[in-house]
Amino acid sequence: MTILLARSAGFCFGVKRATRMAFEAADSHDGICSLGPIIHSPQLVEKLEEKGVVVVHAVKDIPEGAVIIRSHGVTSGELKEINARDLEVVDATCPFVKSAQDYAALLSREGYGVVLVGEREHPEVQGILSYAASGDVFVVAAPDEAEAIPRRKRLGLIAQTTQSFETLRQVADICLKKCQELRIFNTICDATSVRQEEAREIARKSDLVLVIGGFNSANTTRLAQICTEIQPRTHHIETAEQLRAEWFQGVVTVGITAGASTPRWLIDEVIHRVRNISN
Ligand code: F3S
């Protein structure tokens, strides 16, 4: 069996940065917590917990001392609450997420109705939205939802960093019919599009695709969808233990990719187990 491993599999720049900051902060502080899990990898969160990083889910639950803000960022309200409590902040918000937050603020300030392409409930989306202070915002998860956007003189379009370029373009097409002026900031992160394009390439060449990453990770789930469309024999797994020998019947080439929050050691374990299955 041949294994095709995507070059872009695993940690992206923002996650690498957040993880490094979290481990460094754990080493230099006695008590520290993160507001929500640092990244969508339960396995990595567990490792951080062993180093004393406690996950809390609301600012009021932060005991005292220091708090790590994860790569998805936080809402402007949470940031205000944190600052009001005089906590030490280790801000690991990915600079690309930060820039989407800044564009939301700018568009809102300049009187645009803000259209955000993304998953409504995702913390990153919630964070970005909160910076559009006017409250004139529309979140669309898919192009058909954009049809419901009311007419506006001016619309500003941004996207959750993990969205696909094609979705953004389709929403832009619909928005064009809804306003006189459309301003677009492409806030999709390069890491995502590169990873998605590579996943497509690998899926085309493989008889079976394994997508490794947290089941709660939006970008991993999207990768799995993309691969499934091309190669229905695609499995989204979190760990090597979830591999089933029967998946590999008649398989010559296995494609492997992984989400932005998947640690390298998990990828290596999967490769190792696939090799064992094929022997
Ligand atoms: Fe940042 Fe892009 Fe990763 S937005 S967290 S570098 S997927």
From TrEMBL:
Question: Which pathway does this polypeptide act in?
Answer: Isoprenoid biosynthesis; isopentenyl diphosphate biosynthesis via DXP pathway; isopentenyl diphosphate from 1-deoxy-D-xylulose 5-phosphate: step 6/6; Isoprenoid biosynthesis; dimethylallyl diphosphate biosynthesis; dimethylallyl diphosphate from (2E)-4-hydroxy-3-methylbutenyl diphosphate: step 1/1
Q: Which Pfam families match?
A: LYTB
Q: Which UniProt keyword terms apply here?
A: 4Fe-4S, Iron, Iron-sulfur, Isoprene biosynthesis, Metal-binding, Oxidoreductase
Q: Where does [4Fe-4S] cluster bind?
A: C12, C94, C189
Q: Which GO terms describe its molecular function?
A: 4-hydroxy-3-methylbut-2-enyl diphosphate reductase activity
Binding site residues for dimethylallyl diphosphate = H40, H72, H122, S217, N219, S261
Query: Where are the active-site residues found?
Result: E124 (proton donor)
Which Enzyme Commission number(s) are on file for it? 1.17.7.4
According to its UniProt record, which cofactors does this protein need? [4Fe-4S] cluster
Q: Which residue ranges run through the membrane?
A: none
The reaction(s) catalysed by this protein are: dimethylallyl diphosphate + 2 oxidized [2Fe-2S]-[ferredoxin] + H2O = (2E)-4-hydroxy-3-methylbut-2-enyl diphosphate + 2 reduced [2Fe-2S]-[ferredoxin] + 2 H(+); isopentenyl diphosphate + 2 oxidized [2Fe-2S]-[ferredoxin] + H2O = (2E)-4-hydroxy-3-methylbut-2-enyl diphosphate + 2 reduced [2Fe-2S]-[ferredoxin] + 2 H(+)
Cofactor: how and how many bound: Binds 1 [4Fe-4S] cluster per subunit.
Q: Where does (2E)-4-hydroxy-3-methylbut-2-enyl diphosphate bind?
A: H40, H72, H122, T161, S217, N219, S261
* UniProt-annotated binding residues for isopentenyl diphosphate: H40, H72, H122, S217, N219, S261
Q: Which HAMAP family match?
A: IspH
What is known about what this protein does?
Answer: Catalyzes the conversion of 1-hydroxy-2-methyl-2-(E)-butenyl 4-diphosphate (HMBPP) into a mixture of isopentenyl diphosphate (IPP) and dimethylallyl diphosphate (DMAPP). Acts in the terminal step of the DOXP/MEP pathway for isoprenoid precursor biosynthesis.
NCBIfam families tied to this protein = ispH_lytB, PRK01045.1-1
Give the family from UniProt.
Belongs to the IspH family.
**Protein name stated in the entry:** 4-hydroxy-3-methylbut-2-enyl diphosphate reductase
Q: Which organism is it from?
A: Geoalkalibacter halelectricus
